[in-house]
Design brief:
Layout: E1 10-15, H1 17-34, E2 41-46, H2 50-59, E3 65-74, E4 83-88, E5 98-106, H3 110-120, E6 126-134, E7 147-151, E8 157-158, E9 174-177, H4 179-182
Parallel strand pairs: 2-3, 2-5, 5-6, 6-7
Antiparallel strand pairs: 1-9, 3-4, 8-9
The protein binds inosinic acid (IMP).
The site of inosinic acid (IMP) has 15 residues, from strand 5, helix 3 and strand 8.
Length: 183
């Protein structure tokens, strides 16, 4: 699905499919350099990170492995509480592995902060974060993020894995959702 297919649902297209692919290629080149011979384990957080992991992994020239987690945060409505329940844990053991947690978006950072504390107890050789999008104005915790695709405004966005009520994940670019859709 392209933005032209749902033109009335977006107030603005932030990044097109091609812009996302170009930025991802730059990040992949950095990861190629940083992780040469390290066979990193890409940990994708379901469901949003599916597109990023699929595209990042194929843009890498080094070997990598992939694994998946599903989490749900306790909270009321749209507020994240930062307390996370693991719905699906990793199959892989992290001890001694070089782990990159791959995220679609970091908003408050509360979910990821909790997840990072959990993963760190499993004694990986290294543990880093890559996110495609970040909202600097929304962040509420200190997070050391090694790789960031784009910093975006503090607005609700959809596309490239990001959903509203389960929809829009298959939009190839990323755009700001029109308030008319959720009001
Ligand atoms: P955090 O704990 O506030 O950082 O929550 C991050 C999660 O909230 C992401 O993994 C997304 O699932 C969701 N999220 C945050 N902002 C957006 C957005 O603008 N569009 C779609 N989902 C979002």
């Amino acid at each position: 699905m392209d933005s032209a297919d749902i033109a009335n649902d977006l107030t603005e297209v932030l990044y097109t499919k091609d812009q996302i692919a170009a930025r991802l290629a730059e990040l992949a080149a950095e990861i190629d350099r940083d992780y040469a011979d390290k066979n990193p384990l890409l940990v994708g957080v379901l469901n949003g990170a599916v597109m990023v992991v699929a595209d990042l992994s194929r843009a890498l020239k080094i070997h990598c492995e992939m694994d998946w987690m599903a989490v749900s945060s306790y909270g009321s409505g749209t507020q994240t509480s930062g307390v996370v329940r693991i719905l699906k844990d990793l199959n892989a053991h992290l001890a001694g592995r070089h782990v990159i947690v791959v995220e679609d978006i970091i908003d408050t950072g509360l979910t990821l902060s909790y997840l990072m504390q959990n993963l760190a107890t499993r004694e990986p050789a290294s543990l880093q974060i890559m996110t495609m999008f970040r909202k600097p104005a929304a962040i509420q915790v200190e997070l050391d993020i090694a790789y960031v695709g784009f910093d975006i405004p503090n607005q609700f966005v959809v596309g490239y894995g990001l959903d509203y009520a389960g929809r829009y994940r298959n939009l190839t670019g990323v755009g700001i959702l029109s308030p008319a859709i959720y009001s």
